[in-house]
Amino acid sequence: MEYLFILLVPIFGGLLYGVERVVKARMQNRIGPPILQPFYDMGKLFDKETFMVNNYHIIFAIMYLLTLWVAVGLMILGDNMLYVIFIHLLASIFFVLSGYSVNSTYSHIGSNRELLSIVAYEPILILIAVGFYIQNGTFSIAMIQQNSPQIFNMFLLFLAFILVVPIKLKKSPFDATEAHQEIVGGIEVEFSGMFYEIVYTAKWIEYIFIYLFLALFGGDSFLFQVILFLFVFMVVNIIDNSTARVKINHLVKITLFFGLSLSIINLVMLGV
Amino acid sequence: MFKKYRKKSPWILHYNAGSCNGCDIEILACLSPKYDLERFGVINTGNPKQSDIFLVTGPVTYRSRERLVELYNQMPNPKVVVAVGSCTCTGGVFRGMYNVEDGIDRYIPVDVYIPGCAASPELIMDGVVKGLEILETKQKVSDDK
Hints:
The complex is a heterodimer of chains A (about 270) and B (about 140). Chain A contains twelve helices and no strands. Chain A has helices at about 1-5, 10-25, 35-45, 55-75, 80-100, 105-135, 140-145, 155-170, 180-185, 195-215, 220-240, 250-270. The longest helix of chain A is centred in the middle third of the chain and has 32 residues, at about 105-135. The N and C termini of chain A lie far apart (about 40 Å). The model of chain A has no long low-confidence stretch (mean pLDDT about 85). Chain B is built from four helices and seven strands. The model of chain B has no long low-confidence stretch (mean pLDDT about 85). Chain B starts with 10 loop residues before the first strand and ends in an 8-residue tail after the last helix. Chain B has one domain (about 5-145): Rossmann fold. Chain B has a five-stranded parallel β-sheet with strand order 2-1-3-5-7. In chain B, helix 1 crosses helix 4. With about 140 residues, chain B is an alpha/beta fold. Classes of the chains: A mainly alpha (about 270), B alpha/beta (about 140). The interface of A and B includes residues 32, 41 and 192 of A.
């Protein structure tokens, strides 16, 4: 059952992405694309002519997709939380390397910004894991999911996590790493045809990763997890629709200042 | 096998070849809540390597013609070129001026011409949808290779 879910992760991610595009369109008083639009895009991208810049560019992109998939898979199987976070970091590093492997300025800027954003959000993810450890005495996701919801004790860490969500999902105000109008998508600028589909699918899997991570705050209560998901989904989309992009140095400052202070205060509270 | 999806997800590359911005504003109006081109699956990508429809505005000025051809060459097949506005089709009011080429079809093959100064959003949408029909008949590998 779990293995089936892991295999179908990209499909769930695509559906989530499609639903999100409709929700965003409705917020702007538009009709919006059909929910299956990401899969239509996929069909079209397979039909396009493909340009290959160099081998490493594509190999690193495939490694990014597979490593991310493994991270989500380990999460579904209930493995060690630190393990999942570091494998996810490895996936991001593969993506950055693929950006550096081509000779395009936009791609390099995208890679630099991706690295800076990793500096901004990675400490917060690790501190959240530490918070779960203090609460449960273990890093094991399977054990965390058997305990009661911990969000009331870890509320500040939860707020810090809400800061991380727009960075990972490339949403404004924290979408400087992708910045479609400014650096034409950053790292993804040189991908075309079915090679772009690799990056596109990885983006869907990123959605599943971040929302599964969120579900950990809900503990063993499925209802609570669903409520948390709906709440964060709507909040992130409302903020995405109503704010402008911040610069990358502001992104790092805001995330580290607010995120780290909130997390550390919460850890101190948990310790006492 | 995937041919039927071409029509459902056209991604647009918009290039201003010396236009007065009138047509550009109308293109943006197409993407706004009132007309909402996104309901056809359109995304304004801004990246030639990932787009299917090339929307060009403006008569081709001397400065912009190399970039126009470069962008056209960077787009993977199958692709459709849509000329938006009178200037782009024929040169319009700028026809015969010393710093302007008369229309983009001197440099790249055009599939759909949209008249009007500025072309109205309804016409642009009509032209894009017409371009989708042409997109379905195009070959994956072009003949001139």
